[in-house]
Amino acid sequence: MFEFFMNMVGKDMGIDLGTANTLVFVKNKGIVLNEPSIVAIDKDNKRILAVGVEAKRMVGRTPGNIVAIRPLKDGVIADFDTTERMLRYFIKKVHPNMSIARPRIIICVPSGITAVEKKAVVEATEQAGARAAYIIEEPLAAAIGAGLPIDEPTGSMIVDIGGGTSEVAVVSLGGIVAYQSLRIGGDELDEAIIYYLKKENNLLIGESSAERIKMEIGSAFPLENEEKMEVTGRDLVTGLPKTIIITSQQIRASLEKTVSDIINSIVEVLDETPPELASDIMKRGIVLSGGGGLLKGLAERVSRETHCPVYLAPDPLAAVALGAGKCAEDFNSLKRYLKYSKQ
């Protein structure tokens, strides 16, 4: 009776705790929160001033005593206390009756992280208010969220490119057959743009500007109509504001190394895949998810390099959270994909 009451009041959740963004799926409600994984803190008294969207607005615009930080790096916890406080804020925002009933939470982790890093995620989730914390590997969650037939004896390949990590995995019969987990993703692409403009144009721009450039004219494959964009930053020679025009060809060149690393990983995983499953992937194709999967021309580039059809997941940005959410909604049936915190 107690467990029934807890399940009724403490709605189970699936959380995609990403380096760039955190998405929260609540049972029977769907995705109810999608906010940047950023916390603004007053350095003088360690008080949290803002979390999520409000904190992101402060990046690069705060006085000396206020710092906007991202407590996760490369898909893992870099600042435990801040991560726990951020998680608690997000959970309470979508589950205000925490004092009455604490929810079971399914949280996603990169497939390549260590046991210590997994333990840190679980402990942060439990301290943030979870009644019980379960973890699921991100490529498996992304495959479930993308609607791939992971229980069938056929091969499905998912490539999830997040902010801090890129997960490449072949899934069959409910398990991961071959995978690689790279600690590069959308953040690396942003940094590549910042470095390129600094080196080639003596122009310093911020993270937000780099992300905007990536989304507007960034590409992994030549575009049918190449684009231009006006960019304003600080001239490193004079120290004054400066505006330049950059092209999609220039930005593509700046992104080349990171894009090549991801594609090389896909090719290596295909090489490790048993021939029968590789044949399935040749027919069924490769599915891209995560924000990085939306980079213009990436699907065409991957298809050209692997000779496989490539598709975007129905909702690339939310695939991992949707997969965790499906596990929360159909907990008993999908529990086999989860690892319990007490195991």
Structure description:
This protein has helices at residues 2-9, 53-58, 80-94, 115-127, 138-145, 186-201, 207-217, 248-272, 275-284, 298-306, 319-329, 331-334; strands at residues 13-17, 21-26, 30-36, 39-42, 47-51, 66-69, 72-73, 76-77, 104-109, 132-137, 156-161, 166-172, 175-182, 203-204, 228-235, 241-247, 286-289, 310-312, 339-340. The protein is α+β, with helices and mostly antiparallel strands. The protein folds into 3 domains: 2-141 and 319-340, ATPase, nucleotide binding domain (Nucleotidyltransferase, domain 5, 2-Layer Sandwich); 149-184 and 260-316, 2-Layer Sandwich (Nucleotidyltransferase, domain 5), CATH 3.30.420; 186-254, ATPase, substrate binding domain, subdomain 4 (Actin, Chain A, domain 4, Alpha-Beta Complex), CATH 3.90.640. It has a 6-stranded mixed beta sheet with strand order 3-2-1-9-10-19, sandwiched between helices. A 5-stranded mixed beta sheet has the order 13-12-11-17-18, with helices on both faces. Strand 2 and strand 3 form a beta hairpin. Helix 8 packs across helix 10 (298-306). It is flat and about 60 Å long. Mean pLDDT is 92; it is low at 4-9.
- Write down the overall mean pLDDT: 92
Number of helices: 12
Strand count: 19
Major sheet details: 6 strands, mixed
The CATH class name of the largest domain reads: Alpha Beta
Coarse morphology: flat
Strand line-up in the sheet with most strands: 3-2-1-9-10-19
| Second CATH tier, the architecture of the largest domain | 2-Layer Sandwich
Radius of gyration: 21 Å
Query: Share of helix among residues?
Result: 25-40%
